[in-house]
Amino acid sequence: MTDLPLVSIVTPSYNQARYIEATIQSVLAQDYPRIEYGIVDGGSTDGTVEVIKKFEGRIGWWVSEQDKGQTDAINKGFARAQGEILAWINSDDTYEAGAVSAAVKYLQEHPDVGMVYGDCNFINESGRVIGKFNSAQTDLQLLRRGYVHIPQQTAFFRADLWRQVGPLDPSFYFAMDYDLWTRLAARSKIQYVPQLWANFRLHISGKTIVADDRCWPEMIRVHYRDGGSFFSIINTKYFIRKLIAPIWNWRRRRMLNG
To answer: What is the fold of 7-257?
Structure first.
């Protein structure tokens, strides 16, 4: 067992008492034997801490204190992580059984790959599957054009690569993962594996619904920072997305209420 790499998983959390137990259970139910699991809570007041305490004998560590938001919490968690492979799972999302084992197996068999990711379902507040994330193979050139196709919930990457490109940029509220993917892809191969590894929960209070309009402007900021042109595919996609945003948001809310 000791020859298997340690996997450090971090859950950032703030006032997610309704969902965090399912998140914790999905990590603890993994069949991979070497997981260091840490929870970084931002000082929740809704009962989240009480939920965490139910599992404190089974998790590696946890903390509940004021922080500067999700990005700060993830950075704090990875600064403490001891694993050779890193991942984070948000406090309203869940892993599928066997996800960690499958990700580790792929990284062990492909030493040239720095990050691996898989398929992801959309689930609603009650955990019912309501759709599927459009996962697909991408790379640095495609990422810079706005073809992301990486569900963050399924991503596992090497700690030594993180130490080269991290931490997450705290100036990003929404696209800190996209920013990270571009930096990882600039240094190493990233690989899609067509296996279901996680579930992305959509709910009315989630920032994917509440603050979706902040995502693409942040992606555009990454584009220009890395020398991108105004006459680019990602800019075209951004303007189209702005035009169809009302329909897009209506469709997502209908999915949640359906």
So the answer is: Spore Coat Polysaccharide Biosynthesis Protein SpsA; Chain A (3.90.550)
